[in-house]
Design a protein that fits this description.
The protein is α/β, with parallel strands linked by helices. It has 18 helices and 14 strands. The chain has a 14-stranded parallel sheet. Helix 11 links the parallel strand 5 (210-215) and strand 6. Helix 6 (89-102) packs across helix 7 (111-129), helix 15 (349-358) runs parallel beside helix 16 (376-386) and helix 17 (407-418) runs parallel beside helix 18. The protein is globular and about 75 Å long. InterPro entries: LRR_dom_sf (IPR032675).
């Protein structure tokens, strides 16, 4: 029998990181397999009943004195809490509430306080047992959690990812700012008030690489947040900002501080949010590879100037609405694109043909069309005749309409694609379309022939 070292076994089982069923099977092989796989399985909390059984006597006493009885059980085989690397306070709270409904743990019935107290004690358990938490998520839970007790500093000092709302108590943010200086990924959901301590947390970061900001309300003044962002080092490589509804985002000028950006996503419904593009159009982002505007986008003159300065290194460009002038600028200034998403009208299919004939590195094309009477046959003819040789993904998006291509026209497209030199299999993704049964049968036929390697209908 082949005996594996613990390091080799660990490397093998690591591949099952996201497959809980297989990891659970590994627990049953033998003691060594169990020791290795349990550490991976419990990086995220796996079983809340087991977790409650891990609570120390001190916590059980506190809970009992407040009318919460934890059933006696055998001591856990492992110190499960110490294995955890990814914590969601909301998930802890939700799962404790579910246990509350399913088990008679409580001597008195005050569900909100009981759930809060158990969540608090479990959080203390994690703070005392985890030596290096990697990710903390905190959105819906609206009550303070104690993070300034004995183990918090050791647990949180190497925190790499934080996802939270801005209305958590100032004290919570302030305590984090004293402990966590090396967060690499920060997601901020701007809901309701903005706690004062948030600026302290942002300003204290030394190596922030990924910043995601989601704004759900209009704020009269985000200057303090913007100022705190300008104080951090130029380490950001991905910035994603989303303003929902008709919100106007406060300021984008701070983006000019982060010239090492590799990916920039700006998602606004309000075109006024791009006022600061008057400044950004002149800034050079020498490492920028991906630029995405998911709804509105800057004025043509501003965006074209930005592409003139930054388009050469772009590999991905996403613009939800387009026009012929912008399409021609993409050809001129973005020669190395591999992924392109743009909207086309019947009158703009010639510019699509020009794009396909000139952007020789394209691998993925996403085309949106929302015009009544759009000529899908002409579109497919252009795609099969003009697509660069490396194109292997086609994404079509429209506004909840029937896919009008006739079955014989669709089959003709696949036959012509099959005869391209060199032959490449195609991933076909259809978004917001209703597809006839006849066309589905043709797609299935060419999946079986290997011409389509992946087919997906999305909404």
């Amino acid at each position: 029998m082949l005996l594996l070292s613990i390091d080799t076994l660990n490397n093998i089982i690591e591949y099952l990181d996201e497959d809980q069923n297989s990891l659970h099977s590994c627990l049953l092989v033998n003691r060594l397999w169990c020791q290795v796989s349990v550490r991976i399985l419990w990086r995220s909390v796996w079983n809340y009943k087991t977790l409650i059984a891990c609570l120390p006597n001190e916590s059980r006493k506190i809970l009992y004195e407040n009318g919460i009885s934890i059933p006696n059980s055998k001591p856990p085989i492992f110190n499960y809490a110490s294995f955890c690397k990814f914590l969601s306070v909301d998930q802890i709270n939700i799962n404790i509430e579910q246990l509350f409904k399913n088990h008679r743990y409580f001597l008195s019935y005050n569900s909100i306080n009981n759930i809060y107290m158990i969540t608090q004690e479990i959080f203390k358990l994690f703070m005392n047992q985890i030596t290096s938490l990697k990710s903390l998520s905190f959105y819906l839970f609206k009550r303070d959690l104690i993070i300034y007790h004995t183990g918090a500093k050791e647990c949180l000092k190497d925190l790499k990812e934080l996802r939270c709302c801005t209305d958590i108590s100032p004290e919570f943010f302030h305590q984090l700012s004293q402990i966590c200086h090396n967060i690499q990924s920060l997601t901020l959901s701007f809901r309701g008030i903005i706690s004062n301590g948030l600026t302290d947390l942002i300003s204290s970061q030394k190596n922030l690489k990924y910043l995601y900001m989601l704004q759900f309300y209009n704020y009269e003044n985000l200057n303090d947040i913007i100022i705190s962002l300008t104080k951090i080092p130029n380490t950001l490589i991905k910035l994603s900002i989303h303003g929902y509804g008709g919100l106007r985002y406060a300021s984008l000028s701070f983006i000019s501080n982060f010239t090492n950006l590799q990916e920039l996503i700006l998602s606004f419904y309000n075109i006024d949010s791009f006022e600061d593009f008057k400044i950004l159009q002149y800034v050079r982002f020498s490492k920028l590879e991906s630029l995405k505007f998911q709804f509105e986008f800057p004025r043509n003159d501003l965006l074209i100037k930005f592409l003139e300065n930054n388009g050469k290194n772009l590999k991905e460009f996403y613009v939800n609405k387009s026009n012929e002038e912008l399409n021609l600028a993409v050809i001129k200034y973005c020669p190395n694109l591999r992924k392109l998403f743009s909207e086309f009208k019947n009158s703009e299919l010639d510019s699509l043909k020009m794009i396909l004939n000139n952007l020789h590195n394209l691998e993925s094309i996403k085309i949106s069309y929302n015009e009544e009477g759009f000529n899908e046959k002409d579109l497919f003819d252009i795609l099969v005749k003009c697509s660069p040789k490396n194109v292997c993904e086609l994404i079509l998006s429209s506004s909840y309409k029937k896919f009008d291509l006739l079955p014989n026209e669709l089959e003709s497209f696949f036959l012509n694609w099959m005869n391209r030199v060199p032959r490449t299999s195609l991933s076909l993704i259809i978004i917001n379309f209703v597809i006839s049964d006849e066309n589905k049968k043709i797609i299935e036929k060419y999946i079986n022939l290997g011409i389509i390697k992946k087919f997906k209908i999305g909404y």
